[in-house]
Amino acid sequence: MKVCKFGGTSMANSATITQVADIVSSDASRAYIVVSAPGKRDGGDVKVTDALYACAREKNEKGNCDEAFAVIEKRFLDIEKELGINVGMAKELKAIKAKIEDGAGVDYIASRGEYLSARVLAAKLGVEFVDTQDLIKFGTKGELLLDISLDLLRARLADIPRAVLPGFYGSDKDGVVRTFSRGGSDISGAIVARAVGADVYENWTDVDGFLTADPRIIDHPAIIDCLSYKELRELAYMGAEVLHPESIFPVRSAGIPINIRNTFNPSAKGTMIVADGKQRATGRVVTGIAGRKGFTIINIEKDMMNSEIGFCRKALSVLECEGVSFEHMPSGIDTLSLVIRDECLGGNAQKLVGKLRDALGADSIDIHSGLSLIATVGHNMASRHGTAATIFTALADSHINVRMIDQGSSEMNIIVGVDTFDYEKAIAAIYYAFSE
Ligand code: ASP
Question: From the CA of 321, how far away is ligand 1's center (Å)?
Answer without folding.
Answer: 34
